[in-house]
Sequence to fold (209 residues):
Amino acid sequence: MKNKSEKLWKEFSDQQNVSEDQISQFKTYLSLLLEEAEKINLTAITSVQGVISYHFADSLELKNFFDLTNIKSICDVGTGGGFPGIPLKIVYPHLKLFLIEVNHKKMRFLQKVIQALHLKDIEIIDLDWRTFLRKTTYDIDLFCARASLRPDELIRAFSPICHYKNAEIIYWAARGYEPEKKVLPFVKKQEVYQIGNKKRNFVFLSKST
Fold:
């Protein structure tokens, strides 16, 4: 069992081109996730292989389609167990990370992960999306939404009176996703990718011009 686990981590390390220190952070993260998963409904995926593939690798797949080295900040909308924000922060430590999560048990879990992994420059925000858009003025370059809000809610950020109207949004969608009529003007492109045996889409959203 140990050999199988180490093989999975070696494959993940090679595929993602991450350092030994970063692998150590991911291992700690996985242990905390599996320890708390059932208690606070963090994820239905509870195998080492499943978490590595369908949470860690799926979060990091973004770097194959978007240059994260050229931005300063990202916001993970409805982050839950920390995906995709925390995996991206591990690999791109320069990023200022904002995690939006209204569930207080999940917030406490996120704080535990941040402390255990010695991550810096992360803020957890306990506002719902609409309140966040109305009441905050953070400096955010990119919003990410994975298994959280639908695009028809996310595009509220592009309102002319919203502080975040010029930001970009990336939505993790199921394969075959078709944008709703009101979302379509904001879809700049879609990119298909595969994780394990599942095909998924990245939907890139930004203010229509």
In short: The longest strand covers residues 187-195. The domain at 2-205 is CATH 3.40.50.150 (Rossmann fold).
